[in-house]
Amino acid sequence: MSWDDLNNAEPDEVLAWAEAQPWAVAMASCQQDASWHAEGDVWTHTKMACAQLTGLDEWPDLTGRDRTVLLFTALFHDFGKPLTSHVNPTTGRITSPKHALKGEHLARNILRELGCDLETREQIARLVRFHGRPAFLLEKPEPDVEVVSLSWLVRNRLLYLFALADTRGRITAEMGRPEESLHVWRLVAEENGCLDRPYPFDSDHARFVFYRQERPNLHYAPHEAFRGAVTMLSGLPGAGKDAWIAANAPGMPVVSLDELRRDLEIEPDDDQGEVIQAGRERCREHLRAGRPFVFNATNLLRQTRRRWIDLFDDYGARIEIVYIEPPLSVILKQNTRRVRPVPERVIRRLAEKCEPPTLTEAHGLVMVTGREGSA
């Protein structure tokens, strides 16, 4: 089935499709700790959580898109457990550390293969990543900050509704996280004006600073005095980054890691230290001059982007990320027309690891999803 088929299917039809998939078979073979999941294996819990969704009081009033997002969040929320679960040899307890993080990447890749649109895919992937957070809200020193920080990554209403279905879709011998604690998440979100929309920061810069503070302050209003601007490109090789620059930033200075690699005669699979150092120095030249420029590299991982953003922020620049992701078939076709094509296996491996940027990272974000020739 394609994404269009699944998007228009009833929950029972989606579950029937999912049950035949290899990843569902793996979940059915993955046992859980009986104290938290006396119902048994991961797939049994998954089906129970899906069934609880349609019984939620708010389910009839949700849009079709919201229902789809919640249903696939339920399908994938414990996706990572078969790869992360292990039994403690001393206690016999089963744990699945970081299964939500692993599940985020797995869900993103499955949805990409199905042809799911970028916006819906990322909503589902991030809900999978953060699905367990509401249950631990009362353990956080600043609940307001916790709820606000998630509001720019997921819709808090959907996160809350899924947490209800997840909690109700299990049999527990040790209920240490009563359902009442989940309602606190909703109340805090309502009080901060971020149940159905991101928290309303005073400015883009206030949001940018909030996510970079060690101890975030909701009420801090930083002074805005930008010295220059950086447009950071992000996307797989062959996505169309050069074409976007030619169409949207003609004549603007560009720092391109691909060009530096060619100039330095360094292959992509060689040590990139010299390329990175040269790129940082080129960026510093523009930053010191307060000159707007484009930084062109794949920048697929949040950690990688963070290192460059730290540099740009040190010089007081305004930072906008442009993420380009046409369908993978288009990327592979465009890659073959490059002067130095990247091996297809490398592009596919990069796609599996890719972490699309969010507005928690920069002052602005542009998402480009066009077909061939439009990027």
TrEMBL record:
It holds the Pfam family AAA_33. Coiled coil: none annotated. InterPro entries: HD/PDEase_dom, HD_domain, P-loop_NTPase, tRNA_CCA-adding_enzyme. Transmembrane segments: none annotated. GO terms for molecular function: nucleotide binding. Keywords: Nucleotide-binding. It comes from the Bacteria. Residues 61-136 form the HD domain. PANTHER family: MULTIFUNCTIONAL CCA PROTEIN. This is HD domain protein. It comes from Aquisphaera giovannonii.
